[in-house]
Amino acid sequence: MEDAIRCVCVETHPDAIRRANETLPEDEALNDLAELFKLFGDTTRIKILYALLDAELCVCDIAQLLGLTQSAISHQLRLLKAGKLVKFRREGKSVFYSLADGHVRSILGQGMEHMGE
pLDDT grade, residue 100 (50/70/90)? Predict the structure, then answer.
């Protein structure tokens, strides 16, 4: 394992600190962002999001696709919905899920692009 690179000086750079502090969001916004990224920390949720990239699917469809129970999928969809990553619409007795917006598609795409670098 490579050792972390450490600064050996004790000097600070007030201008750099001031500029960084000016762009630092409020703690509440940072906490919300951390919670959003936690949703991407589960392989099943990532698979669900990828399944919804090009198709609107119901819980039954997703469960069969991923080989999981409807209950497990419903639980993950509740989390994704609470995080505003998916939306749903009712059609008769069926509920169809899709990505909430283009931002979700962008986050997934940029994540994969970053992994490929």
Answer: very high
